[in-house]
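INFO  loader      accepted 1 record
INFO  loader      residues=393
INFO  predictor   begin
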Amino acid sequence: MSQIAFQKPDARDFLDIDGLLDDEDRMLRDTVRAFVGKEIAPNIAEWWEEGIMPVELAKVMGDMGLLGMHLEGYGCAGTSATAYGLACLELEAGDSGIRSFVSVQGSLAMFPIWKFGSDEQKLEYLPRMASGELIGCFGLTEADSGSDPSSMKTNARRDGNDWILNGSKMWITNGNLADVAIVWARTDEGIRGFIVPTDSKGFTANEVKHKVSLRASVTSELVFDDIRLPGDAVLPEVSSMRGPLSCLNEARFGIAFGAAGASRACYEAALDYAMERVQFDKPIASFQLTQQKLVEMMIATQRAYLVAVHLGRRKDAGELSPQQVSFGKMDNVRNALEVARLARGLLGGNGITLEYPVIRHMTNLESVYTYEGTNEIHTLIMGEALTGIGSFV
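INFO  predictor   done
INFO  writer      dumping tokens
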């Protein structure tokens, strides 16, 4: 009986998950990877240290078709959900803040207009947001209502044909960069979404300073002081928490992929370092404990990639549930954070410098672990799916 010649597994894709992708997926993935390698990787440590996200990147990524790329029409690329996820993976392999910008623009600011807006609103905003001409942000979280957004205090009341908006939002990505904010507010008609130009009288954005996480991302507090909005500023097709929660579901899907990218970046940095770093006259990759760490990082990274691709295929088939998105967001982020911590330890003192990407990813992931649904919230979402018993109250 002839022996089968097995190919040695690739250390960077041990399970050959790339083989599950079609040619179009791989081509798009490779395009984004090349962009990150050329434009993001050489500069991101400096941007992170300075606490900036260059606004000119918006038009660059718009020209590439990355903004609202999974939406149909209105200048959007109309890619598959899997392709969008792979783009998120590559962007977050560069930095979580860069992926967050794209995620907020497409899934949190453009998606609600695309899903719940009028034809006039779609034509007015989506093409310019897809091109990067207009930057958007998403106002849901408040200082006193994070995991329980339905307890929001921001409110809007009718005044003739207009609306008067009051309140504030906190931890808003892109807030000081945005030209338009999608703001969710309590009204007599339920929770409504409003398209709020940021140059409106009574609108203030206060940038959050002194962050030690997601530093290459602009985070803001938004304040609304008797902002008068025309009647057509409201999104007409939703008047409940279904609106903002559906947007979060879109963004969480991208995070499941993005976390796999951050995990991969940390694992590959550790692998390269272990092969090159010599101690006791041999590379530290030859030591058993180092190999154990590398194997654990590889397994966690490949598992996250598999989960993400599977969720992408289910979303493309119209079969992905919010509870399954919670599985991906929760498990991929916590595993990526553990990979980052292992990689940080393996790099020793070099692991705390920005010459390597690991400490940057590790601190970024602390925010990703919390935002768009804490680990506890996603646990309870899945717990209810398992038991049929809600445990939020």
